[in-house]
Amino acid sequence: MNVTRRQAAQRTDSDTIDEAADGNPKPQDLTGTPASLRHFEDAMLDAGTRIRRLGFKGGCVLLLSVMLSFAFYWHLIRYALVTPHTEDVYFLRMETCPACYGNDFCYHFTNSEVTFTGAYQYPIAHQLNPSKHVFEGRQGRYKGAPVVIKSLATPEQLERVQRGLCKSTDLQESHRCNMRDALWKRLSLGEDTLTLYDVRGENDFFRCPSQRLLDAVKEAFRLRDPEKPKRLLRNEEMSLLFTALVNPEPLLLMTFTSEKGWPFPRYYGACGRFIVVEHRGRSATDYLTAPLSERLLLSMRILQLAIKLTASDTGFSLYLNDWDLANFAVYPDTRTVTLVDLSNVIVVDTLQLNSYVSRQHHTTNGSKAKVDEVCDHRLSDWNLLHACSMLRLSLLNDQIADSQQVGDYLNECASAQPKRSRFQLAKLIIDALDKPI
After folding, report:
1. Which pairing describes strands 379-380 and 360-361: parallel, antiparallel, or unpaired?
2. What residues are paired with 361 via a beta bridge?
3. What are the tens digits of pLDDT across the range 201-256?
4. E strand or H helix at 156, and its extent?
5. Are 185 and 169 in contact (CB under 8 A)?
6. Which residues form the FAM69 protein-kinase domain (predicted)?
């Protein structure tokens, strides 16, 4: 007489116990089913029996629980791995405006015209690396063109700015002091609410205060939307002040544009606490091991950039306070050099200086020179001093030994007391580098 599978499984389990007791192996059961598979089948049979015992109402409750669990975990996985952060208004911090960089570019974000690429297109990558605030290597694509998305400040830096604002507006004792309230109170209620008093000395950009500079920044900020009134609205001035206090890079990119010939990336716009700028190629540090001919070309371009920043026909001289090769990018096709980190740029309004001020300033203390000295001169060799110092330790390190002429020029240019003008030395270095090797 045939036995059922369940009875066969129970009999086999009994045989296994007997076998362990007397040490004599028992013959395999008649079904030929492995023990692990039998246990699984038993578990499924038990589960089916229990579900049938639940009845109709219990089955509905169980089904509903399973569906809700599936929906919850699906949304969790979708948020962590699928949903683009550029569509998330909370990730972009749009709700913080006007304590933000602006909202002129939000349409492109929320319509997925700007996205992160690579690993950072997935939200979980940002959560695993929350301290990363400048997405220089995380290139999105704006209408097919590569771009760079930046947040410009860490949460700790934003917290310091907020504490400073609350303290300056006598709101530090209030537990409800936030950035927007402090910005509102910081601005006066006059016709021109944002004045030099509000931004003077807050960072390198306004280290040398100038009303003409502030007016130029306001006009550039207003022209982000040509249909705006001729003067900024209060919310717009609050965003401008927030940007000036946190990181003035967007203000500099809007005012000194690449379209006017400045060696900076193009500024596309801002949404909440993110900005989008043009991608200008690989980091200059990638060329440290490039062939000599390429390094000579890039060194010449960097010196030309230093002169361009210093002596422009706009009435403004720009001085970089952080000469690091990582702050430059190289466009692969043309080998054009661009300054891509502009958070430490000093702007001097040379037209506002009195006529008795000496025209040229010679930086005399090498790396220990006081950067504030550039504020009082129409022309300074600050950029050339630090450009020469940077090149002799990076791209032209081996040239000091291989080419006595270039090495002598570089050493003199980077010295604290050069015998010749650094502008003259820069021209000599450029001419030497421009010769075919």
Report:
1. parallel
2. 380
3. 888 999 998 999 999 999 999 888 766 667 888 889 999 999 999 999 999 999 99
4. helix 155-168
5. yes
6. 241-414
Residues of the chain with pLDDT under 50: 1-13, 16-21, 23-28, 30, 136-138, 356, 367-368
- The two three-digit tokens of residue 98, written as one number: 């006007």
**CB contact set of 293 (below 8 Å; sequence gap of 6+):** 437
Length of the chain: 437
* Element spanning 282, H or E: strand 282-283
Q: Which residues pair with 271 in a beta bridge?
A: 274
Find where tokens 């997935």 sit: 122
Tell me if residue 328 falls in helix, strand or coil. strand
Please say whether the beta carbons of 210 and 240 come within 8 A: no
Say how far apart CA 168 and CA 375 lie, in whole Å: 26
Beta strands in 70-169 (DSSP E): 134-142, 145-150
Q: What is the pLDDT of residues 368-422, one digit of tens each?
A: 457 788 888 888 999 999 999 999 999 998 766 566 788 899 999 999 889 999 9
DSSP, res 24: P
Provide the 10 A C-beta neighbour count for residue 345. 22
Cα angle vertex 141, ends 136, 142, to 5°? 115
Supply the pTM of this predicted model. Answer: 0.78
430 burial (CB, 10 Å; 0-12 / 13-18 / 19+) is middle
Residue 178: name the closest of 102, 251, 95 by CA: 95
Integer Cα distance of 240 and 347 in angstroms? 17
CA 43 to chain centre: 54
- The C-alpha atoms of residue 419 and residue 152 are separated, in whole angstroms, by 41
Residue whose tokens read 């400040």: 153
Here the tokens at position 339 are: 């300054």
Residue 303 and residue 384 in contact, taking contact as beta carbons nearer than 8 Å: yes
